[in-house]
Amino acid sequence: MVNIEGIDIEWLGHDCFKLKKNGYTVYLDPLKLPENPEKADVILVTHEHFDHFSMEDILKIVKPRTYIVAANKCQVPLNKEENKFGVAIYMVPGEVTDAGEVNIRTVPAYNLNKFRSPGLAFHPKEDQKLGYIFKFGGKTFYLMGDTDNIPELKDIKDIDIAFVPVSGTYVMTPEEASQAVSVFKPKIAIPMHYGSVVGSKQDAEKFKSLVKTSRVEILG
Fold this sequence. Notes:
Blueprint: E1 2-4, E2 7-13, E3 16-21, E4 24-28, E5 42-45, H1 55-61, E6 67-71, H2 75-79, E7 87-91, E8 96-99, E9 102-108, E10 115-117, E11 120-121, E12 130-136, E13 139-143, E14 161-165, H3 174-184, E15 188-192, H4 201-210, E16 215-216
Parallel strand pairs: 4-5, 5-6, 6-7, 13-14, 14-15, 15-16
Antiparallel strand pairs: 1-2, 2-3, 3-4, 8-9, 9-12, 10-11, 12-13
């Protein structure tokens, strides 16, 4: 865990993070949480794949006033559990919303050169999977989601802390991720998407060795 100007940032594995400030708790892509975890005020879900959208883990942390913000393809399973949390907001890239104390803008997340079969990307642009640029606790975060070094990154600016996928196969390699970070230059880059489903800490360390434009914090 790292504390950045009063915000606790804890990596819980893969793309799952817990952010906390002044008793307010935000989870990103909750997955494989321990028993009886701290409850969430806001949950952000980038897309519907099992390693990002785990209903089992979401139900561990929701409470009657929890906001869940998610990609459109998460809507049907979440609607079946809607009596267990406060508000669900479904988004596509290019939208803005407020969820409690979190101000959110969605951006695209998709593959350019990662394919499950010829011509079929693991994360096609037309699927409208999400990256999140959000403000919380006085800082601007960018949860990149499962993405490559896409052209839209050139329009992203003024990011304090970016969560960057680095494991390759389904997302950017460490080399591609370092190139992506050099485009939008966050103050701090935190590598993710390694250690459980695919990739290892070596990917995070390789990413750190290559990044010259940002401070890199490896959280696990």
